[in-house]
Amino acid sequence: MIEKIIKHIRENLSTQILISMVLGVITGLFFGQMIAWIGVIGDAFIRLFQMPVIPYIMVSLLGSLGRLSSKEAKAIFLQGGAFLGLFWLIILLIVILFPLGFPNWKSASFFSKSLLQESGQMDIVGLFIPFNPFDAMANAIIPSVVMFSVALGLALISLQNKQTTLEVLATLEKSLMRITETVAKLTPIGVFAILASASGTLPLEAFGRLQVYIILQALLSLMLSFWLLPALVAALTPLKYKEILLAYRTPLLTAFATANLLIVLPLIIDRSKQLLKPFAEANPEKQREMTSPIEIFVPASFTLPDMGRLISLSFIPFAAWFGGSSLSFEQYPTFLAAGLASFFGGDGVTIMRFLLTLMRLPTDMLQLYITLDQISVSRFGTLLAGMNAIALALLGTASINRLIRIRRRQIIRFSLITSLMLLIIVGGVHSFFTFFVTNTYSKDKILENLPLLRVRNSQEVEVFLGLTTPLEIDETKSRIIQIKERKVLRACYYNNDYPMAYLNRQNELVGFDIEMAHIFAKDLGLKLELVPLEIKSIQLDRSAYLIDQGYCDIIMGAIAMTPERALNISFSLSVLKYTLSFLVHDYRQEKFKSWADLQNISQLRLGIPGRVPYYEAKLKGLIPQAELVETGDIRGLLNGKLEGLDGLVGAAESNSAWTLLYPNYSVAIPKPIVAVPVAYILPYDDQPFLDVFNTWLQLKKEDGTITSLYDYWIQGKTGAVEPPRWSIIRNVLNWAK
Q1: Per-residue model confidence (pLDDT) at position 233
Q2: More confident call, 641 vs 359
Q3: Half-sphere exposure of residue 466: CA atoms within 13 angstroms, side-chain side
Q4: Of 560, 472, 511, 461, which Cα lies nearest the Cα of 712?
Q5: Which ranges in the chain are annotated with CATH 3.40.190.10?
Q6: What does the pLDDT look like over 292-333, one tens digit per residue?
Q7: For residue 696, what pLDDT band results from cuts at 50, 70 and 90?
């Protein structure tokens, strides 16, 4: 008995994959983040699988199209094409409706550089029609590769003496398939590594969001497979709904169990012929002719985009929702067109990487897609792909043989039931997860619990609650000489300036600017004094006064560099770049997506912290009708729901942090992007101090300090200080710390 089980496992790749999935999840849960290193093996497996994809797309399309006769090509493109187009329209509509099933869960995210990439500027013509096919291949622009391959394949149809070329293409296709088959043997190892890494490192909060996608995709796939497609065939042909389901029960279950459609294609062809046999027997002379289109449509459905693969496009809006954003209405045409074209031959992983990049979403979501695909998505997708092949074969063949019947009553009934089922599934999932499933929002706690990153054993530091007694300043000496003599650096910072300077829940003063002050003082062997300033003291004359009178040696609160400010103070080298943005209510984000849209809002009232004439003039030039109102405490304004204001002007890098604390608000970055350099303030005309500080600042840029602090404080890459993810070995057995 045991020997038979072992033999079955050795000979059955699907069983091996299933076992590796279970073992991968168990391993990840057991070891937690200790097993994160195994993700490298998963990445290598993905690359191996992607390696032959682009060549295979080309060779496969060239060969399959080139072998067709003109008559076969016409039948496929005219008769089958109409129904295939209908299927595409249905599934793309499902993808559009998919986000309506997402629950109203609070979500927000740290600032990401992907927010700064221009969207809506996609060259649709360039995406689909390559001027250089080799460039499209090198950069994996799948729609262009597919378009070039289809054009070349269609040209082959009418050529004479093409047999040798087709044989070469067939040989190449077999060679590329052999590479894929060889890599496929490593699938259990790759799947184990991917799932072990994902289940060991994925935050527990993410699991709640994953089940939304899994359940929604499964229910919609089942509805399409067991109602919409077979009911559509029954409504348009003489076939009965029940006999369709009974006839294909075995191939559909096999496809679902193995997640492999290819192995059941012969069975689907045979069952389709048997189902249409009674109609063929009525005309024995044309019996072969009546059923032969099935042999074209079923393989064609396997090579063309099918509903089973296209439903995975729903992962892109899910990825946006998972990160706390959404696709805009204007993005959907490009997204759907590119997604449809990509599935003319690309594999899911390559396509998702391409679409994530196209939609300006983090490509590290690809691991999440692979995890979902292995857990359940691929099986439900394969089930739907199988029914797609069946429906295309039956409807296409029936159309060629003039068996299509338009029965208004049946079609109305079909449409009403389908609409009702969609409403129940999408609305039901949305309502269930919104009202009955608890999803605790915790990203605000992440920000408010962050400790300093690089300063572990900090030097002596004193934090003042407000302006303190000014230091004695000798105007005959450089400030850096006086600092070294007294061995104290007094650095001022802007209070409650998330994520640059703020008090965490442990009542520790932390943030990007605070950590920079710690590092500068420590590198010079100085005691550090930190003095808070209100945001209004950003004003030009106030900053110069505070430094000149000895309240501060340096203001380490990054502010915008402007010519007027440089007349009275010295700026360090640029520390960072800030991006002009607006903090708005979630529902208003779309109205702030471009400066042109903002110009169309007749009455626009915006809050701006501190008066900066240079940037007020900049805003007035971009949105001349806007009223700019000087504001006070940001937290108070957000608690008051921005009463009387349409939004707050600020840096996207800072505003993103505020959305973590107030997830009902969003950051809007109008296009084209306006970015400004920011720097620290030093005493005016004190070149020695400026030289020392700029030398230090340049060193910190070159040695990666500023990059690591930027990633940590602004982009929220906090893995270095977060407690290890829950695991059995650490939290249950207590075998590890």
Answers
A1: 92
A2: 359
A3: 0
A4: 511
A5: 446-569+690-714, 576-677
A6: 677 667 766 766 788 998 999 999 999 888 877 788 888 899
A7: very high
Q: Quick: pLDDT tens for 622-663.
A: 898 988 888 777 777 787 777 788 888 888 898 888 888 888
Q: What CA–CA distance (Å, rounded) separates 163 from 356?
A: 40
pLDDT tens digits, one per residue of 443-469: 778 888 888 887 766 568 899 988 888
Compute how many other C-beta atoms are within 10 angstroms of the C-beta atom of residue 534. 16
Rg (CA), the chain: 31
What is the rounded distance in angstroms from the CA atom of residue 108 to the CA atom of residue 665?
Answer: 9
- Is residue 121's pLDDT more than 50? no
More confident position, 282 or 603: 603
CA dihedral 179, 183, 184, 188 (to 10 degrees): 170
Cα 528 to Cα 461: distance, rounded to the nearest angstrom: 5
Sequence-ordered list of residues with C-beta below 8 angstroms from that of 470, at least 6 positions apart, any chain: 549, 550, 551
- What are the phi and psi torsion angles at 503 (to 5°)? -90, 125
- Coil, strand or helix: which one is 228? helix
Paired residues of 678 in beta bridges:
560, 576
Largest CA distance in the chain: 112
Burial class (CB in 10 A: 0-12, 13-18, 19+), 684: middle
Q: Which CATH number fits domain 576-677: 3.20.20.100, 3.40.1190.10, 3.40.190.10, 3.50.50.60?
A: 3.40.190.10
> DSSP secondary-structure letter at 185?
T
Residue 227: Cβ within 10 Å count: 16
Q: How far is CA 663 from CA 108, 422, 641, in A?
A: 6, 30, 12
Determine the Cα–Cα distance for residues 342 and 337; give it in Å rounded to an integer: 9
Report the chain's mean pLDDT, rounded to a whole number: 83
Distance CA 559, CA 494 (A): 10
User: Which CATH architecture is the domain 446-569+690-714 placed in?
Assistant: 3-Layer(aba) Sandwich (3.40)
Measure the CA–CA gap between 246 and 517, rounded to whole angstroms.
73
* pLDDT for 351 beyond 80: yes
State what percent of residues in the chain have pLDDT above 70.
87
Select from 712, 707, 715, 455 the least CA-distant residue to 576: 707
Q: Any residues with CB less than 8 A from the CB of 8 and at least 6 apart, and which?
A: 15
- The per-residue pLDDT for 120 is 43
Q: Reply yes or no on whether the pLDDT at 213 is more than 70.
A: yes
Cα distance between residue 534 and residue 159, in whole Å: 78
| Strands 647-651, 554-560: pairing kind | unpaired
- What is the per-residue pLDDT for 476? 87
Torsion sign over Cα 75, 78, 83, 84: positive
Q: What HEC string does 586-634 produce?
A: HHHHHHHCEHHHHHCCCCCEEEEECCCHHHHHHHHHHCCCCEEEEECCH
Cα of first residue to Cα of last residue in the chain, in angstroms, is: 42
Residue 97: strand, helix, or coil: helix
- Distance in angstroms (rounded) separating the CA atoms of residues 571 and 578: 15
* Burial group, residue 164, by CB count within 10 angstroms (0-12, 13-18, 19+): exposed
Global pTM value: 0.70
Nearest-angstrom CA–CA distance, 50 and 353: 11
Q: Cα 221 vs. chain centroid, distance in angstroms?
A: 22
Nearest to 189 by CA among 334, 16, 337, 344: 16
What is the length of the chain? Answer: 737
Q: How confident is the model at residue 101 (pLDDT cuts 50, 70, 90)?
A: very high
